[in-house]
Amino acid sequence: MDLGVFGYSKEDPSKKPINILDVGCGIGGSTRYLASKYGSQCKGITLSPVEAERARVLTAAQGLESQVSFEVADALNQPFADGSFDLIWCIECADHISDKTKFVHELNRVAAPGATIILLTWCHRDLSPLENDLHPDEKKLLTQAVSRNRAKWISAADYMNLFKSCSFQEIKYADWSPHVAPHYAEMRKITLSWKGIMSYVRHAGWRQMSIKFLMMPSVFDTFKNGLLKYCILMCQKPQ
């Protein structure tokens, strides 16, 4: 996770993020990493009080309490003043937010002038100029995956249009699917192995295992056939 490619430098103080927001921080792994790497003040938000408390415990264990804090908060209604952060980082959280327009506008609100926003998220494929929607069979497959993951995906082009609607600049996008494909292929292999099945049964019971067992092929197939892509998107708020 080297932000040098986004114009940030650990060595150059003038090119170092000072205040970072990690949206959908989970137990704070990326929050702590960014704080340690750049010496920045970092805040993480999550909807889960359990995750937030676990994040605080892990942060204390690493001696980062003076740099890193966590709050239980909604990404669509963040408890921060306008223009609070010069870097906003969001990894695999936007997938689970239905109102993408409100989400992007809220990021715009809390971003300081000149701030960078970076999303790592799943997107469905971009539509061609002659298409108005996904094919019926694609929508069916995607609906199956969405209903089991409680996720809602849009295309990378849709995200870039939302960025443009907020007058963001330096909008960039890359498809990282080839880089993460080996991980998801291995995850599917492990999940559907006898050891993986019995592990889920022990921890979650047969009912949850059946959901996991049915979900994995659908999600994997959407990824393998290009319907879903793992994307990184970046933009900057004007000065």
Structure in words:
The chain has seven helices and seven strands. It has 239 residues and is of the alpha/beta class. It has a domain at 3-127 and 150-177 and 228-236: Vaccinia Virus protein VP39 (Rossmann fold, 3-Layer(aba) Sandwich), CATH 3.40.50. A seven-stranded mixed beta sheet has the order 3-2-1-4-5-7-6, sandwiched between helices. Helix 4 runs antiparallel to helix 7 (194-224) and helix 6 (177-191) packs antiparallel against helix 7 (194-224). It comes from Coffea canephora. This is Methyltransferase type 11 domain-containing protein. Residues 110-119 are annotated as: SAM motif III. Keywords: Alkaloid metabolism, Methyltransferase, S-adenosyl-L-methionine, Transferase.
- Specify the structural class: alpha/beta
Strand content: 15-25%
CATH homologous superfamily identity of one domain: Vaccinia Virus protein VP39
Low-pLDDT parts are none
Shape-level CATH architecture of one domain:
3-Layer(aba) Sandwich
CATH topology of one domain: Rossmann fold
**Average pLDDT score:** 85
Order of helices and strands: EHEHEEHEHHEHHE
Cα separation of the termini:
25 Å
What helical percentage do the residues reach? 40-55%
CATH class of one domain: Alpha Beta
Family: Belongs to the class I-like SAM-binding methyltransferase superfamily. gTMT family.
Keywords: Alkaloid metabolism, Methyltransferase, S-adenosyl-L-methionine, Transferase
GO molecular function: S-adenosylmethionine-dependent methyltransferase activity
Subunit structure: Homodimer.
